[in-house]
Write a structure and sequence with these properties.
Blueprint lengths: L13 E2 L2 H10 L8 E4 L5 H8 L4 E5 L2 H8 L6 E5 L7 H4 L5 E6 L5 H10 L4 E9 H8 L9 H9 E9 L4 E2 L6 E8 L10 H11 L7 H7 L4 H11 L12 H15 L4
Parallel strand pairs: 2-3, 2-5, 3-4, 5-6
Antiparallel strand pairs: 1-8, 6-9, 7-9
Helix pairs in contact: 1-2, 5-7, 8-11, 10-11
The structure holds S-adenosylmethionine (SAM).
Length: about 270
């Protein structure tokens, strides 16, 4: 399809900067045995480069017209799935792991996509993703930074996150209102913490940042955690409950979550 009209509701900002496209593909360090997933191929500037490697590419696109145009290219190594990537059952999408997920993401759903990635993280050997700059900054942020939050902690628990390249609005058509950044995330051979119960850990991290201005203890109380159990866990881990969530290292979140799990199992 030539010159598709970008649809704002699908977050369509099409990348045309050749250097940025090169850097995205190079960052994925594609090997002969890799399989690739692209979310939101759009008119296919990135897809074309990925297909040129000869590797199998699975592309998931919500825009029926763009998906159809891609399908009509009849590329032997391309499989197109049409629909909202958040509505697919990812266990059915990711049938031949590991995959490299390479994408210029629709910015309005990038956090939701990352939560899905976390849920299915064993299926990925590498992620190279374009984000709006603010989200990228959150993902690389460490404790003590105002950008540090739920996604920083959860992604960095299991992935090494690094910046690949900053991308100005002019690299896209139409240019978005914000700067962008490409990040590479690779699974850690050993997670930052040995989380005993992931659901509880995720819930704890989310609750700790629910009210950023409050102390962790108050923020957790506000999210329904039991005072007695919290106090027992803070005492046992020797973590000061008067601190704010943004000062907690990943290891401290892990220690607190494991302690709460040992006190009360999955009931928290
Ligand atoms: N990859 C193309 C490029 O770099 O030029 C397009 C990137 S554009 C920022 C985001 C793409 O994601 C669009 O093609 C859009 O239609 C698609 N998209 C938006 N929401 C989606 C969803 N929920 N599921 C799958 N694709 C989606």
């Amino acid at each position: 399809m030539s010159n598709p009209r970008p649809r704002k509701r699908f977050g369509q900002n099409f990348l045309h900067d050749q250097h940025v496209l090169d850097r995205i593909v190079a960052a994925a360090e594609l090997q002969e045995t890799d399989r690739v997933i692209e979310i939101g191929p759009g008119p296919g500037a990135l897809t074309t480069r990925l297909l040129a490697t000869g590797l199998p590419v699975l592309a998931v696109e919500i825009d029926r017209d763009l998906a159809k145009a891609l399908e009509e290219r009849n590329e032997a190594n391309l499989k197109v799935k049409t629909g909202d990537v958040l509505r697919f059952d990812w266990s059915e999408l990711l049938t031949q792991p590991p995959y490299k997920l390479i994408a210029n993401l629709p910015y309005n759903i990038s956090s939701q996509i990352l939560f899905k990635v976390l849920e299915h993280r064993y299926a990925f050997s590498c992620l190279v993703l374009m984000f709006q700059k603010e989200v990228g900054e959150r993902l690389v942020a460490t404790e003590g930074s105002r950008n540090y939050g739920i996604l920083s902690v959860l992604m960095q628990t299991w992935f090494h996150v690094e910046r690949v390249i900053k991308v100005p609005p002019g690299a896209f058509f139409p240019p978005p209102k914000v700067d962008s950044v490409v990040l590479r995330m690779t699974p850690l051979s050993k997670p930052r913490v040995d989380v005993q119960n992931e659901a509880l850990y995720r819930k704890l991290v989310k609750s700790a940042f629910a009210q950023r201005r409050k102390t962790v203890r108050n923020s957790l109380l506000g999210s329904g955690w039991q005072a007695e159990q919290l106090d027992q866990a803070f005492a046992a881990t020797e973590i000061d409950p008067g601190r704010r969530g943004e000062t907690f290292t990943i290891e401290e979140f892990g220690a607190l979550a494991n302690l709460l799990y040992s006190i009360n199992g999955e009931n928290d």
